[in-house]
Design a protein that fits this description.
The chain is mainly α. It has helices at residues 2-22, 27-44, 46-66, 73-80, 82-87, 89-97, 105-120, 128-145, 151-168, 178-187, 192-206, 216-237, 242-256, and strands at residues 268-274, 277-284, 287-292. The chain is 66% helix and 7% strand.
Length: 297
Amino acid sequence: MKSCQACSWDSSFEARLTRLQYGTESAQVQAALFGFAIWLKARRGAQFAALNLQRYLPFLSELHQHWAEMPSYAVLVDHFSAEGLRRVRSVVNWLQETGQLNVDPEVRERASERRRIAHLLKVLPEGPGRTALLGYYHCLERRLDLEQLQLRSMRIALSSAVRLLFSTDADGQRLPDQKDLLQLLRKRPGLWASLYGFVGHLNRRHSLKLTPWVDPAWLCRAAHALKERRLLELYAEAGTGEAYERRWISMALSCFHGLGRIGTRVFKYAPTEHGGQAGFTVLLRGEEYWVPAVPPA
């Protein structure tokens, strides 16, 4: 039965490939489609190739319609966008593996950052908040042109600015005051550094009187309070399984041992008891720690 089914999908693949090739007049597209189809079948099997080959044809057609020779990856990103290329990544992988295209990760990352920035600029509706944000964006663009700023840093700065404006007034009709700034920093103390430039911009361009400097001791207290809130929320979940245990241990290490943000996959752990209290012995970067476990619900 399996052999017959495999033969059936092989026949279906051949028939669909032939039909798609006859459906296009371009010899270049026909050749590209044939090469990609054989590659796709070898990687994913006849069934997948037969069922999905047609959805890649528009990309191959547009590719050869616009360029007689394969353009650079940067040109493709400008034309199709990084997101557009992700949707046809099987074709991109084929082009790369067969030496037709050299994928540049930096170009891809820059395009992704640009897409995120474009989204940030659309979060707020028309109003004072959006005007302030766009003004800040243009200032950052000038610094970017002068190579005084990296694109990722620009996106982080804009993201923090949007958080402040949105938490102040989701409709974007009011600019923040000192109370709004401190209220956000109590919830997200880690935003302080990335908000510094935007606070200065608001003071200079919009005649606000925000104080960008915040007492480090206050920030530490706010950060610790935030850790405690998150730990209590996690405690209330009373989950089970390795994924939950790793989340709990990560947060407990940060809260109980004063460590920074800890990834959930960077440590080893084992259940142990300490003074009759169930918990975990954790090995992280050559150091051993102990954290209590969440009692079963």
